[in-house]
Write a structure and sequence with these properties.
The chain has helices at about 30-35, 70-80, 115-125, 155-170, 200-210, 210-225, 230-240, 245-255, 260-270, 285-295, 320-335, 350-355, 370-375, 385-390, 395-405; strands at about 1-5, 15-25, 45-50, 55-60, 85-95, 105-110, 130-140, 145-150, 170-175, 185-190, 275-280, 295-305, 310-315, 340-345, 360-365, 375-380. It is of the alpha/beta class. It is elongated and about 95 Å long. The protein starts with a strand and ends in a 23-residue tail after the last helix.
């Protein structure tokens, strides 16, 4: 449904709401307004929606001069009947009721989105004092994504209320304030391990060193926030001492992008967004990702290599939890984007400061502590669903791909391998 208010009328001016229902076909909208044109009316508001081939068209217009309403009603009904449509005309005064203060967009991701879940969401919105002004489907696959335009409720209260509801009914819900900044150019910064890619890079290195299980256990404890990240990083990297530097190329070939990663980045770049990554992993992988995916920014830890061997140490400042937030701010400053217009995506405890610093922090298939703290959570394995939280529809994504003639195979719900010719690493 779309609406466009074209003029203002005083509250005491007689108006008519003309509603048309029936099977959609080309020319209905033009036909209705051709019919109304004979009465020299002003158009106050228009709304139209087509669902499974059925149209609902509403036109709010000023009433005709005295004595003309009866003729208008007869003419509209006759026109509608000639096309097999139904018409309803309601008399009133003035424009639509003003919307309440506080405007928010509520995006719901369901797989599936059932009627019971939708009822629970609508009830929760009402409980906050909000009114649902508009509902629009953003996508039908790989998940059902629906956006509610809500007025009359505080965005913060709405977010808190629906976060609880989301957990209870098993859907993903994101709440953002309405405004021009939602469509403004933004900066999107992602974690890498288990976010942009399906793997933990240090575990890929550890597999070549024969200590994968030991490293994986420490990694999991660090991501849950049970261990200091920097200490755990040094302990894990020490286990890699002596590995031949040639292992870097092997690890790069083993990396698997998260399904939808290419679609997410490609679409954001076409919209003029800047995209970066920050990682507690290693520049030996993130620099390669930056080049392959066309990222604008990338920062990570660097494995020390001396005489063709890994020393078991990292060099330079460690990218940890606080470091990721600092890098988000630095990237935003370099990109010329206000922090309020940044989006951060991550899954682990060391992403929390970054998620909280961003204008929109998205927990992607995250640990419970991260889901509870983030502005929004996505719990489906498709990274491009983040586009829906920004109000971008699946149709817009596919249309952009068709215009560009893309065919790289990343459709947002299939496997998304790393390289173009190296998709044997798909998972």
């Amino acid at each position: 449904m779309s609406a466009s208010q074209t003029s203002e009328v005083p509250a005491d001016v007689p108006t008519l709401l003309v509603k048309i229902f029936g099977k959609d076909r080309p020319g209905i909208t033009a036909g209705l307004f051709d019919t109304l044109a004979a009465y020299s009316l002003d158009v106050v508001d228009i709304e139209q929606v087509v669902t499974r081939g059925r149209i609902v068209l509403c036109a709010l217009v000023t009433a005709p001069a005295a004595g003309g309403e009866g003729g208008l009603r007869a003419t509209v009904h006759s026109w509608a009947e000639s096309l097999g449509l139904q018409a309803e005309i309601i008399s009133g005064r003035g424009d639509n009721r003003p919307r309440g203060m506080g405007r928010s967009h509520v995006t719901v991701l369901g797989n599936p989105l059932t009627s019971e879940k939708t009822a629970a969401i609508a009830s929760a919105i009402t409980a906050t004092g909000g009114n649902i002004d508009r509902i629009f489907r953003l996508a039908k696959y790989p998940v059902t994504a629906v956006e509610f335009a809500v007025s009359g409720a505080d965005t913060g209260l709405l977010r808190t209320t629906l976060a609880t509801q989301s957990h209870e009914i098993g859907v993903d819900i994101a709440v953002v304030a309405s405004g021009l900044q939602r469509r403004a150019q933004r900066l999107v910064v992602m974690d890498v391990d288990s976010t942009l890619i399906q793997d933990e890079v240090i575990e890929l290195f550890a597999a070549h060193a024969g200590c994968e299980a030991e490293v994986a256990e420490v990694t999991e404890r660090a991501m849950r926030g049970e261990l200091d990240f920097e200490q755990s990083l040094h302990a894990r990297v020490a286990l890699l001492a002596g590995l031949d530097a040639s292992v870097v190329e092997k690890v790069r070939a083993e990396v698997r992008l998260t399904p939808g990663a290419r679609t997410l980045i490609r679409t954001l770049k076409r919209l003029g967004y800047q995209v970066g990554v920050v990682s507690g992993g290693f520049t030996q992988v993130t620099d390669d990702l930056r080049g392959r995916l066309g990222l604008d920014f990338a920062s990570a830890n660097t494995l020390e290599i001396v005489d063709g061997k890994l020393t078991g140490r990292v060099v330079g400042e460690v990218v940890d939890r606080a470091g990721k937030a600092r890098l988000l701010r630095r990237f935003a400053a370099e990109a010329g984007v206000p922090l309020a217009q940044t989006v951060a995506i991550g899954d682990g405890a060391n992403d929390l400061d970054m998620l909280n610093a961003a204008g929109l922090g998205v927990a992607f298939n995250a640990k419970p502590v991260v889901r509870r703290a983030a502005h929004a959570a996505v719990n489906v394995p498709f990274l491009d669903t983040v586009l829906y939280l920004l109000g971008i529809t699946r149709e817009e994504v596919e249309s952009a791909d068709a215009e560009a003639g893309d065919g790289d195979g990343d459709d947002g719900y299939g496997d998304d391998g790393y390289g173009d010719a190296e998709d044997g690493a798909r998972g």
